[in-house]
TrEMBL record:
Protein name: Ribosomal-protein-alanine acetyltransferase
Recorded GO MF terms: N-acetyltransferase activity
Pfam families named among the record's database cross-references: Acetyltransf_1 (PF00583)
Keyword Heme: no
Domain N-acetyltransferase: 32-178
Similarity field: Belongs to the acetyltransferase family. RimI subfamily.
Matching SUPFAM superfamilies: Acyl-CoA N-acyltransferases (Nat)
Key words, A-Z: Acyltransferase, Cytoplasm, Transferase
InterPro entries, per the entry: AcTrfase_RimI/Ard1, Acyl_CoA_acyltransferase, GNAT_dom, YpeA/RimI_acetyltransf
Record-linked PANTHER family: ACETYLTRANSFERASE, N-ACETYLTRANSFERASE DOMAIN-CONTAINING PROTEIN
Record's keyword annotation contains Transferase: yes
UniProt source species: Enterococcus alcedinis
Length: 178
């Protein structure tokens, strides 16, 4: 996840938007909706973050707003169960790289395969824009997420020393070659 939102992460724009067709998926007899996020979802995205990050919101409202209205090619998806937001993911395309900017699933829904589905959607989107790679940053201590990314084909590229401001933790920069 980006340490914090940076609107100038890429200088080049692809000024077009792709529409995502809402999907319904079943996991363990439960039905979930995956749909494109909009500004009206931000309050719920902040709530998801608080529950995932022990009260913290690494991304604030303005960060989500800027991303949702970015002129960069991007896809922000939410996963809902009975209209309750239980997870989300964002990918932003820069040059030929699809970068996962943020991904989180509520603790009680983790381990069900929702993260994997969101990674698959991010990859389909990136491939549709002819990306050569996908990338992301993950905390060095976040072994669970790293295992998921490795299983999905990501490899470590480099260490970003003291990337996260609040505790100076290193990030691992990971890449997947498409
Ligand atoms: C990382 C995250 C998005 C994965 O979503 P998910 O829905 O739990 O992922 P899946 O169910 O598809 O995959 C589970 C795999 O992820 C890993 N995993 C990560 N967190 C897990 C958890 N709390 N419980 C179980 N598995 C977890 C495991 O390696 C598991 O692999 P396995 O099937 O080999 O055991 C989610 O766990 C999460 O929100 N974590 C907290 C926020 C975070 O770390 N975000 C990533 C920032 S880079």
């Amino acid at each position: 996840m980006w340490r914090r939102f940076n609107p100038f992460q890429s200088a080049l724009f692809r000024n077009f938007r792709k529409q995502y067709t809402t999907k319904r998926i079943r996991i363990n007899e439960r039905e979930f909706e995956i749909r494109q996020l909009n500004a009206g979802d931000i309050k719920n995205l902040l709530d998801v973050q608080r529950k995932v990050y022990e009260g913290e919101t690494p991304w604030v409202r303005s960060a989500f707003l800027s991303e949702l209205y970015s002129r960069h090619a991007h896809l922000y998806l939410g996963v809902l169960e009975e209209n309750q937001m239980i997870g989300f993911m964002g990918v932003r395309v820069s040059l030929s790289d699809g970068h996962i900017t943020n991904i989180a699933v509520l603790p009680q829904f983790q381990g069900l395969g929702i993260g994997t589905i969101l990674l698959e959607e991010s990859e389909k989107f990136s491939r549709s824009l002819d990306c050569a790679t996908m990338s992301l940053e993950v905390r060095r201590s976040n072994q669970d997420a790293q295992r998921l990314y490795r299983r999905f084909g990501y490899v470590s590229r480099k260490v970003l020393p003291q990337y996260y401001d609040e505790n100076q933790e290193d990030a691992i920069d990971m890449v997947k070659y498409l």
